[in-house]
Amino acid sequence: MIHGRNFHTASILINGKVLVTGGFHHGPLNSAELYDPSTESWRTVASMNYTRYMHTASILKTGKVLVIGGNNGSSGLNSAELYDPLTETWITASDMNNGRIGHTASILTNGKVLITGGKNGNDYLRSAELYDPSKNIWTTTGSMNNARVEHTATILTNGKVLVTGGNNVRALTSAELYDPLTGTWTITNSMNDARYSHTASLLTNGKVFVTGGLNRDALSSAELYDPLTESWTSMASMNYTRWYSKASVLTNGKVLITGGFNNEILSTVELYDPSTQDWTIIKNMNDARYSHTASVLMNGKVLVTGGWNSGMTLDTAEIFSLF
To answer: Which pTM does this prediction carry?
Structure first.
């Protein structure tokens, strides 16, 4: 990349290019850059209006990218802005009701964006709010039952949103479901392991696969949520404990886990096969890294960017291919 960065975002645009925004490198960044898979090259695009890391970036149905919240080095941001791929410019959007760091953003089936939890100063948030792109307005919706930061949010095939784990002074086992039709949250069965900074992946069979994370120590455990029974099943553990790793669902339905941290920074990569419920260790990445991004490109390859390694923010990028 042009800039080293970690705790940044990477968004696959409808034209197949990848927009990377913000992050941290000797301080919060507002820079953005664009990766073109056809030429395997990076170029700078217009910078965001605000420096931020630990923010979120969501591809709207219009093709624009909504970037919200994050840390500017001193506080949680409530600012939001939109990137227009056609003009390659940023437009200021309406502010959220709350500043948030380490929150989640989910595109609902109705096109609205659900924002959950996060942290603002010393406050762990259970509040949630909705962004309506057609009106450029934010509205509060039902609050979660538990405040949480560094949790996950997964849109299920039935349109509901599953939120898992996170931290609010301690790691959480709790999980809950948001119903967009009623704007309310209901408690579902808890995970077997408390965890935060973990991964959650929607499998092709509609189940949610959760891996790793932190609970005092880094975890190798994995578990599967079945939306039909609202139950969790422990699955085979990963070969490595890891948190701040990334999980990517490949075009063949397998799950690729890259990097992370477990008292050392990992270059290890492993592959989970839902059909056999087995893990396979594959070739290491060229660079050990955590707090990186991993994006499944339209050609099925996975683009890994940036992250942190031994006191250094990385500008390196690498491609994983099954073939």
So the answer is: 0.97
